[in-house]
Every structure is written in structure tokens, then in C-alpha cells.
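Input record, target 12 of the design panel.
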């Protein structure tokens, strides 16, 4: 099992994802902007429809 598979399979993760989805819907959020640091150290942003 890869690290990613282990992370996705963690107990309780499905419930947390469901809670976040419900909050996004409840608040009427239609677009989410994510920021993260790339491997090279550059700050990168991505926007996606919710």
C-alpha cells in the first residue's frame, strides 16, 4: 500500500470529507481557491469549482 492509499483509507476520513462537502453546500460556496508550496518552493494557487 502506498502512502497515498494509506492516507485515503484512514478510519473516519469518509465522515470528515462528508462534513466538509455538507458545509460547502450549506454556505453556498461555488468556487474554491487552494494554495500550496511546490517541490521547488514556489507558492502555487489553483482554483476549482466546488
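The sequence produced for target 12 reads:
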Amino acid at each position: 500500500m502506498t502512502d497515498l492509499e494509506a492516507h485515503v483509507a484512514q478510519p473516519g476520513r469518509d465522515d470528515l470529507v462528508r462534513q466538509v462537502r455538507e458545509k460547502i453546500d450549506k454556505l453556498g460556496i461555488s468556487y474554491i481557491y487552494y494554495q500550496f508550496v511546490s517541490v521547488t518552493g514556489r507558492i502555487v494557487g489553483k482554483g476549482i469549482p466546488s
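Strands lie at 31-37, 43-49.
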